[in-house]
Write a structure and sequence with these properties.
mainly alpha; 3 helices; Multidrug-efflux Transporter Regulator, Chain: A, Domain 2; about 100 residues; single chain
């Protein structure tokens, strides 16, 4: 097999963040040739869904972290947590659950 093709076959699943079992399956399919194009496409279609979910989770975590940073920065600047305005309530709109400030 041509070196470039080998490199693509083996590095593409790794760069896409596939699990080892999915990488092994992808490589086995790739080695079988063009008859497995649809199956390989489906693997990456599913991986796209997985990655979108992970991005959403990370974005939510970033939002909470940024709110906490603003909370603590304001508390440090004012010298106390006691007098912070209610705007520092970390509840997410629509979630119904509030995160208490420590």
């Amino acid at each position: 097999m041509d070196q470039i093709v080998i490199e693509i076959v083996y590095t593409t699943p790794l760069k896409a963040g596939l699990l080892i079992k999915d990488m092994q399956h992808y490589i086995a399919l790739a080695l079988k040739g063009e008859s497995t194009l649809q199956e390989r496409y489906d693997i990456f279609l599913e991986q796209e869904k997985v990655l979108k979910h992970k991005i959403e989770v990370l974005q939510n975590a970033m939002e909470v972290t940024q709110k906490k940073l603003a909370y603590y920065k304001t508390a440090i600047e004012s010298g106390s947590e006691k007098d912070l305005p209610p705007a520092f309530n970390l509840s997410r709109s629509g979630s119904g659950s509030a995160v208490k400030n420590p």
